[in-house]
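Could someone model calcium ion with this protein?
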Amino acid sequence: MLSASRAPGRSRLIDVIRNPILLSVLMLAGCAASSGDQAGSDEHEIVLPAKKLVIAHRGASGYLPEHTIAAKAMAYAQGADYIEQDLVMTKDGKLVVLHDRYLDTVTDVASVFPGRNREDGRFYVIDFTLAEIKQLSVSERFETEDGAVRLVFKDRFPLWKSSFRVHTFAEEIELIQGLNDSTGKSIGLYPEMKSPAFHRDEGKDIASATLDVLMAYGYKSKSDKVFLQCFDPYELQRIYIELMPERQMSVRLIQLISTSEEYRRLLSADGMKQLATFVDGIGPSVLLLIEQDSTSSSVRATGLTGFAHAAGLKVHPYTFRRERDQMPPFAKDYDDFLRIFFDEIGVDGVFTDFPDLTVQYLEARH
Ligand code: G3P
Ligand code: CA
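Reply:
Sure, complex below.
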C-alpha cells in the first residue's frame, strides 16, 4: 500500500506500474462512471460528442487579479464551463484560494506583517491564520527584481488598484453555487490541491480538507460538476483508494502532468493505462501534446492525447493565454492556438486565462 507521506517521483511511479497487487486493487475498484459533461449511454439514447470545456484558469485572470472573487464572477459571466481554484491551507487549517504557497507574489503581506517571513525570505500561507490573511490586499501578480516591482503580465490589470481580498474555498463555492441558482446555469468547480507533501510536512492533510468541503457543499459523485486535480499521483491514489471510499464519495480526478522529468515514465500508452485505474483525465502542459519542432505549416502531435483517449481519459491541457509570448511559435494567433489543440490534437477542454475568447472560438466553430 502507498505511504501517505510519499511525494511524487519518477522511481515511485515505476513502483506502481510494477506493483500487481496495487494495480489489481485499483482495477477492481473500477473508475468507469458517467460524466457530468457527457451524454448518457442508454442503448436507446443518441450519444452526442462531449462538449469541449472552457476551464477558467484562476478565473478570468487575463482581465482581473487571479483567484479574486471578481475574477471568478467575470469568468462565470464570460461563459466558462468550469472555474479553477488552486488551494493552499492556512495555519488554522482553512483552505484558501491562492496559487502559491507564499503570500508575497500577490499580496501586501511584507508591509502588513514585516518580519513574518521564513529564512528563505518568503511569507508562507501556512504561517498565517485566516483572520490575518483576510487583512491583506491582493494585487495583480508581480515580481521583484533589483528592488523594482513589476507586473508578471505587463498588459494586464495594473498593480495595487481597486480592492481585492483573499477568500476561502467555501466562499468561492458559495459564489458559484449562488450564481448557478440566480442564472439557472450549472457551472462547475475545478479545484487543485497544491503541494500535498509540503502540507503533510507542516501537519496538514489538504486532500482530506478538500474532500470534506466538497462533500459539505454536495459534490460527491462523478455526475457532480467537479474535477479534482493534483500534480501528485500518490495523493490522487490515496484519495481514490482510501479517502473517497471512507466518505462514500467518488468525484472525478485529474492527474496534472508538467514537463518535469519525474513524469516522463507516464507519457506512454502504458502510463496512461496505469493512470486510468484511478483518474478520469489528465491535465498536461500544452508543451507535452505537440512536438516542439512543429511549424505553422506542419503541426505534429506527440502520441500523448491518443494514448490518453485510448485509455478512456479526458485531456485538459494548460495554459491558454492570448499574449504572443505565452503562445507556441507555431500558433499564428490565439484562435489558431485554440484551433490546433481543439481541432487538430482533439483535446477535450482547455485551461485558459481568457474564457471569453475561448467561448467565442468554440461557438464560432459550429
Ligand atoms: O491546474 C492546471 C494548471 O493551473 C496547472 O498549472 O501552475 O497554473 O496551477 P498552475
Ligand atoms: Ca492550477
